[in-house]
Amino acid sequence: MERRDIRGLLIDLDGVLYVGNQPIEGAQEALEALAEKGIACRFITNTTTRTAGELVEKLRKFGFTVKPEEVFSAVTATADFLRSQSRNGNLPSVHLIVRESVLPEFEAFPKDGDHPDFVVVGDIGAAWSYPLLNRAFQQLMNGAELVAMHKNRFFQGDEGLLLDIGAFVAGLEFVTGHEARIIGKPSPDFFRLGIESLGLPPENVAIIGDDIESDIGGGQAAGLTGILVKTGKYRPKHVEESDVTPEVVIESIGELPGVL
Length: 260
Known about the structure:
By secondary structure, this protein is an alpha/beta fold. It has helices spanning about 25-35, 50-60, 75-85, 130-140, 165-175, 190-200, 210-220, 235-240, 255-260; strands at about 10, 20, 20-25, 40-45, 70-75, 95, 120, 145-150, 155, 160-165, 180, 205-210, 225-230, 250.
């Protein structure tokens, strides 16, 4: 790290700044210290149960000073992607498998339960069922494209590791024979949103995350320095089994100002 001129950071949220409804000890002080050092921060998250605005409110309740334009959400990025697929001024039709809380982000898109242009998958918790999956399968076989807000395997909840939407996305890919378009991490395009907002070249930016694959591996593929924290979903076994090697491993984000 001594040889790297890190002037900007992309920071994951869940597992790095907080777990569930509990902030990580020392996280607020770390962000304040980084600001004093003049290191710019952006926040990049695969969370699909809240809009970007709701995430900002959650962060502020925890005591973090965060501006809406500093948060890059897979939900917002998905809506932006769908808008980019408009033809002759017409927005594409969608079938949404998402939480009710994020539906306002997709209000403008026409809904089609039979032959949508896109099947959009986010986190719906325990609402997954065979009829729901089979309906999506039939739509995809009829020509719809599968769009996944992310493809995480699991996440850290209050009760431990929990199954994430990657299992269902992978299942739909298997039965249809078509790969999903992944919007959030580890998509390089998603990391570029934060990098461009910082106005820095990738070599001057580091990604701070608890997921060895999506955060660190995805960030490194986009040219970033990878700093892995031992909070959230971090498990030594997953790091040992991964082909990804972070440049730095720290106990928590509380150690980050000292590392930089």
